[in-house]
Design brief:
Layout lengths: L17 H17 L3 E2 L5 E3 H8 L4 H6 L1 E4 L5 E4 L4 H10 L9 E10 L11 E10 L4 H17 L6 E6 L6 H13 L7 H9 L13 H5 L10 H17 L3 E3 L11 E8 L8 E7 L3 H4 L7 E7 H10 L12 E5 L2 H16 L4 E3 L6 H10 L4 E5 L1 H6 L1 E6 L5 E5 L3 H9 L2
Parallel strand pairs: 1-5, 7-8, 12-13, 12-14
Antiparallel strand pairs: 2-4, 3-4, 5-6, 6-11, 7-9, 9-10, 10-11, 14-15, 15-16
């Protein structure tokens, strides 16, 4: 028989890793709900056209990274490569525009992209996602940015700062794109093949190129900030004013464009110090035209996505510790068939009373069972033998102190419950 292994680019999240995941998920949800965000869960797969139209056919995500398949009905479906398009689809489909605006939503779950696996980056990975739909107020941009700032700061990240840019809107961006293309035509022989292609299909993406030969051209490229219309310029200025007011450090980065076509106006990344070359830990921005692209009413929106694997990788690298989950309150050890039957009954009674219990399996000696109770970090070992059953008691050993007392079986639930609260 073949020895099966997990697919390339995926991972098994083992029990010992779960404390990190629980810490990140619990804290992220706590922050979101404290700010009035409500949870929405959208399907893991959607119509392929949703992502092609929403993200943009000329993006790397759509061109190279999507997991697309034809189902038995002949429909083309795609495992979600990001949350936003599906959330906006749900907003439109369920008429959420009639609710009090804005609508604030969060999602958490797996995302799928066929990418080159590397540290903290997988083909199945997990994101925490925030969206505010139904307002153009720059304060919404700020709120999204502050929430992920608080997420990373609260999880122990150091040296946080924002990278910030505005990519304009359909009124001012076309003029800038023409200026950018004209500039790049002067350097067409110097840039990489990818940039020559992007210059025709998705010109803004040339600013995100990582090829060394393109860096001097990018550095000297015209900045979109000099070509914003009045509305975009005012929006960007107000957002920066809020950040200055709160003392949040940011750097204006004219080459920051993100990888998805739906972005308008604000785009940003959160950077952290001391985590190597890939300083960006998350990114997001505004997408005021996405709802219309997907066939809905005009609905401004802004959002952010934070990768959970990347968060946990950095937490470990920076030595951030998470609490170890407690062991069971009680470990039930039993000696003999009658004691085993009583152990089964007692475990059920204790669990129904809301107490955590581990029942020893099999027929083993007391020393073996006590070693297991110790390994499982049980607070108390409840020992049942023929003598104890005859007298209607259980021997209860405090595994930390090593002390042992007898407790009547009929009062064991109350005895343990009192100590569970200590």
């Amino acid at each position: 028989m073949p020895r099966f292994q997990r697919p390339t680019g995926t991972q098994d999240i083992l029990p010992e890793e779960q404390p990190y995941w629980n810490r990140v998920r619990t804290f992220a949800i706590q922050l979101a709900e404290r700010a009035g965000f409500e949870r929405i869960d959208v399907p893991i797969f959607e119509a392929t056209e949703l992502f092609a139209r929403g993200i943009g056919t000329a993006t790397d995500v759509v061109e190279k990274e999507m997991y697309t398949f034809e189902d038995k009905g002949g429909d083309s479906l795609t495992l979600r490569p990001e949350f936003t398009a599906g959330v906006v689809r749900a907003y439109i489909e369920h008429g959420m525009h009639v609710r009090p605006q804005p609508v604030k939503l969060y999602s958490i779950g797996p995302i799928f992209r066929y990418d080159r696996p590397q540290a903290g980056r997988y083909r199945q990975f997990h994101q925490f996602n925030l969206e505010i739909l139904g307002t153009q107020d720059p304060a919404a941009d700020l709120e999204i940015m502050l929430l992920v700032w608080d997420l990373y700061e609260g999880l122990g990240f150091r040296g946080l700062s924002f990278q910030l840019n505005s990519t304009g809107c359909p009124r001012c961006r076309p003029g800038y794109v023409e200026v950018l293309k004209a500039y790049y035509q002067q350097h067409i022989a110097e840039i990489c093949d990818d940039c020559r292609r992007r210059l025709q299909t998705n010109p803004l993406r040339v600013l995100d190129c990582k090829a060394e030969q393109c860096q001097p051209i990018i550095a000297a490229a015209p900045a979109i900030g000099d070509h914003l219309c009045e509305e975009c310029a005012d929006h960007f200025a107000t957002l920066r004013e809020y950040l200055d007011l709160l003392g949040k450090p940011y750097t204006l980065n004219h080459r920051l464009v993100r990888g998805l076509d739906y972005y308008t106006k604000t785009v940003f990344e959160v950077w952290a110090a001391g985590i190597g070359a890939q300083a960006a830990v998350c990114g997001g921005g505004r997408y005021d035209g996405l709802a219309e692209i997907l066939g809905g009413p005009p609905t401004p929106g802004v959002g952010v996505a934070a990768g959970i694997e990347r968060i946990i990788l950095v937490m470990k690298a920076q030595g951030v510790e998470v609490p170890t989950p407690p062991g069971p309150l009680a470990f039930i050890a039993h000696l003999g068939p009658e004691a085993r039957r009583e152990g089964v009954r007692l475990a059920d009674e204790l669990r129904r009373a809301g107490l955590s219990v581990w029942l020893a399996f099999g027929e083993r000696g007391l020393k073996s069972q006590m070693r297991e109770a110790n390994k499982r970090r049980a607070r108390y070992a409840v020992i049942l033998g023929e003598d104890e059953l005859a007298r209607g008691v259980a021997a209860v050993r405090d595994m930390g102190a090593g002390e042992q007392v007898e407790v009547p079986l009929e009062g064991l639930v109350t005895w343990l419950r009192e100590r569970a609260s200590l």
